[in-house]
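Supplementary Note 2. Why include the ligand at all?

Several targets in our set were suspected to adopt different conformations when bound, so apo predictions alone were not considered sufficient. For every target with a known small-molecule partner we therefore ran a joint prediction. The input for copper (II) ion is given below.
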Amino acid sequence: MDRRQFLKISSALAVIGSLPTITLAASPSPGFDYELIVAPANVRIAADGDTPAWCFNGHFPAPVIRAKQHQPVRIRVVNQLDEPTTIHWHGLRIPIEMDGVPFLSQPPIMPGETFDYEFTPPDAGTFWYHPHMNSVEQLGKGLVGAFIVDEAENPGFDADVVMGLKNWHIRDDGSFTALTTPRNAFRMGTPGRLMTVNGKTAPTYYIPAGGAIRARLANIDNTLTYDINSPQTDLTIVAIDGNPIAKPRPLDHHLMGPGMRLDLGFIAPNNAGETVTLYHKNKVLMTFQTIGEDKQRRELPRLPLNPIQAPDLDTAEVIRFAFEWDASINPIEKDGKVNYRFWTINRTPWDGMSADNIPAPLATLELGKSYIFELSNLTQYHHPIHLHGHTFTVLQSNKQTIEPFHTDTVLLGQNEVARIAFVADNPGRWMYHCHVIEHLKTGLMGYIEVV
Ligand code: C2O
Ligand code: CU
Ligand code: CU
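The joint prediction is reproduced in token form.
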């Protein structure tokens, strides 16, 4: 088999109608839906030269995995890096054995080894996947991809565009700048220089004129909180972090921390050649341009809610978590070394783990019981707080009015206190961390045990 046959490139980046969206899958081994080969690859992201990235199947963007709600998907991961890895399926409520966290859920996939993931997604929506080892480097160098779970019944959009947002830490010649600096790690994180959507600067995607469009944004960046907005007034938020919302509402602007997603629905302008532009703050992220005959759609399809158990708020136990830093330590030690115990959850920094040294959980929950977590950000920086294996409801915040919604990652702004609730219905040891990758690397991580 030659490389061309091996890497089946089956479509362009933006696709109209029922064609698949981005697909770039290595021919899977028999019995597998996808095969992901994790390996170094030179890719063209910058204007003037290649980037020595780490990629899935030799390209960026990574293959968009498409699974179907309530149907098993089998994914073989082959590690061709010189270091161990694991792959985590962010936002999917699947059994702990498939969660892709080293030591807590599986042994690391060593160089040259293969690991087979198989699970059945209970929820439909926009999710993503990434390694859970050496994350600053593995994610920062390009190992990030979109994972779409299609609804059991097709909701009937005319186009479905998947967009991974990442600011690459690269120069114009393609070479990497520092993925982390101590100074930034102890502040908001180190931003990349080159803002991209699916690895392109301000790309244009073609959509059918007058069609019902679903635009899926995934923040697959290590650091940045995107502030999504558009001068167009008729964009509707239909799902947040993968989960459809009960009352779709107009997009004013929406903050998306690392790891978070946003599904926008809109009816495309009726005439060919018209545009709809999405911005991060006042910078153009990407543009849609209409083509073809007017499809004359009037209404957006409705998305069914995901089957998430409602917590019992009357009996729920309240557990408090404070996110802060340890003011008594010097983040950079005298010899210039970074102190990895800077950020803390309830005054405990994450210390790393190994097969025979797994730290204690931050909390132990009883299987089937309802919990309210009160999350307090005692710092001036944003922290997108993520829990594996569960989808929770954001109930309230001291800083903003909340229409309760389902998510796996909640963004806490400066000194924000939020309450979230969920049923601990998935047994296992579930990572619980800030998704600013340098923060989890320097302490802001732990895990919750459900037994
Ligand atoms: Cu995307 Cu541990 O997470
Ligand atoms: Cu996750
Ligand atoms: Cu953080």
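The mean pLDDT is 93. The longest strand covers residues 34-44. Comparable summaries for the other entries are listed in the accompanying table.
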